[in-house]
Amino acid sequence: METEPGTDDELTALAAELETENITFVDDLNDEIAALVGTSDHLQYDYIAGDVSD
Predict the structure, then answer these.
(1) pLDDT in tens, 1-48
(2) How far apart are CA 11 and CA 21, in angstroms?
(3) Amino acid 3: pLDDT
(4) Do 34 and 26 meet the contact criterion of CB atoms below 8 Å apart?
(5) Among 13, 31, 35, 37, CA closest to 23
(6) To 5 degrees, how large is the angle CA 39–CA 45–CA 50?
(7) Residues 14, 20: Cα–Cα separation, whole Å
(8) Closest by alpha carbon to 11, among 27, 23, 26?
(9) Backbone phi, then psi, for 7, in 5-degree steps?
(10) What is the maximum alpha-carbon separation in the chain?
(11) Alpha-carbon torsion 1, 54, 8, 5, what sign?
(12) Which residues contact 36 (CB under 8 A, 6 or more apart)?
């Protein structure tokens, strides 16, 4: 694609190609997960180890 990764233009193009608006980038998802872990008393860890899969 000709747009910079992570831009709204790229999301719009992907949404059209994939026929859904329910998509995000890994970096954005990581930020959301970090915010959840950081604000939840039950998820207070110094490190999280593992693999990401389907």
Answers:
(1) 343 456 788 888 888 999 988 888 888 888 998 888 888 888 777 887
(2) 8
(3) 39
(4) no
(5) 13
(6) 115
(7) 8
(8) 23
(9) -90, 160
(10) 42
(11) negative
(12) 43
CB 13 within 8 A of CB 5: no
CA 21 remoteness from chain centre: 14
Query: Can you read off the two tokens belonging to residue 24?
Result: 């995000």
Encoding tokens for residue 12? 């719009």
23, amino acid identity:
I
Return the structure tokens found at 9: 């233009």
- Using alpha carbons only, how large is the chain's radius of gyration in Å? 15
The structure's pTM equals 0.54
Identify the CA nearest to 17 among candidates 33, 3, 31.
3
Round to whole Å and give the CA distance between 36 and 8: 23
